[in-house]
Amino acid sequence: METLYHQTNKQIQEVQSYMGRLENTDRQSVHLLENELQARIDQIFSHLERLDILASKEPPNRRQNAKLRVDQLKYDVQHLQTALRNFQHRRYSREAQDREREELMSRTFTTNDADTSIPIDETLQLNSNLNNAHRGMDDLLGSGSSILTGLRDQRGTLKGTHKKMLDVANMLGLSNTVMRLIEKRATQDKLIMIGGMLLTCVVMFLVVKYLG
């Protein structure tokens, strides 16, 4: 397990290094780098599945620590996957804006063309407003994605904490009443988390629907 763990950790660090090159890569080559990064991330996810199996086979005194190390790798690679998707979304939006701008500038305006009777200043202002709206949507989608990722991480943390609390309670011989209170609080936390995720999804849907 140790060999695969260190190999996977090294791959995550390499992907982090490559991610820093995305912004400076030219338009003709950026999609090649994106494909390479996605392939590396997919390979890391495959290694993590194997590490999960190996961690479960560790001796009892080392099993918990092994699972925590694997969970940390999962957390890191999930953030890399989210960052790559956000970058791709921003790139698609910029390319669409560039195409719209080129189409606008290539149009021929004549005094007899009823379809092009809008003043140039107003057309440019409209294009600027559209660009601002696109950027606002990108920021909101990025924030929403980060919030959802954070909520998923919190869910995992709450589940782990709940289990540990129950284990400690069993060891200390606490009463059934205290145990039920602990389980009730964990259920309430879970419902709050699910409500937050649903609210975030609704906000993102409304933003895409009305700003798109």
Automatic annotation (TrEMBL):
Record localization: Endoplasmic reticulum membrane; Golgi apparatus, cis-Golgi network membrane
Keywords tagged on the record: Acetylation, Coiled coil, Endoplasmic reticulum, Golgi apparatus, Membrane, Protein transport, Transmembrane, Transmembrane helix, Transport
Pfam families linked to this entry: V-SNARE_C
Transmembrane segments: 191-211
Membrane topology: Single-pass type IV membrane protein
Biological processes per GO annotation: intra-Golgi vesicle-mediated transport; protein transport; vesicle fusion
One CC-aspect GO term: ER to Golgi transport vesicle membrane
Similarity field: Belongs to the GOSR2 family.
Protein name as it appears in the record: Golgi SNAP receptor complex member 2
